[in-house]
Amino acid sequence: MRCIWCGDDPLYMQYHDTEWGKVVKDDRVLFEFLILESAQAGLSWITILRKREGYRKNFAEFDAKAVSKFTEVDVEEILKDPGIIRNRAKVQSAINNAKVFLTIQQQFGSFFNYLYSFMPNGSSISNNPKSIKDIPTTSLESISISKDLKKRGMKFFGPVTCYAFMQAVGMVNDHDHACSFK
To answer: Which of 97, 104, 131, 142 has the fewest other C-beta atoms within 10 Å?
Structure first.
């Protein structure tokens, strides 16, 4: 049994079964989800999943150092590709956010360490939603993380986007209580 939200789209089911809610410690993967979740703001997640390879290609295989060095010429090239969400502000924010990401890595040793400094006892949270209505869209942690990231200059990463990111990378496990992947 799966969480109801993934429906019957094979891509969504694969994402649900293999990624969503699983703890990610790799900073490169955390950066990937940072870019993808920021791009998703105002859109459906399935739209982003369908464009994931376009993001991988255009954002240097999610190498934060490489992305942080992108120029306006790179932005213009990226915006030509229908394989991504062609929103200038979101593309420019990915470059900006890469710089913030790298600064945090230097300060905390890793982005993972930074994120988990906000978590109770430095651990993931496992919720037990009975239905989709019981899944929150924010938490005290997502509010704190997004506020801190905003102070550091990060864009397109408010509390709701941050919470979705936390779900994606396993900081929060919101699988339905009856889900086989809980």
So the answer is: 131
Instruction: Tell me, yes or no, if 12 is annotated catalytic.
Output: no
Active site annotation includes 163:
no
Determine the Cα–Cα distance for residues 41 and 157; give it in Å rounded to an integer: 8
72 is catalytic: no
Q: Where are the domains of the chain?
A: 24-173
In Å, how far from its chain's centre is CA 149?
A: 13
CA 149, CA 137: separation in Å to the nearest integer? Answer: 18
pTM, entire model: 0.96
Active-site residue among 12, 20, 32, 37? 37
Indicate the class that CATH gives domain 24-173: mainly alpha
| Residues in the chain, total | 182
Q: Which residues pair with 126 in a beta bridge?
A: 173
For residue 178, what are the contacts with CB-CB under 8 A and spacing of at least 6?
A: 1
Nearest CA to 100 among 142, 67, 136?
Answer: 67
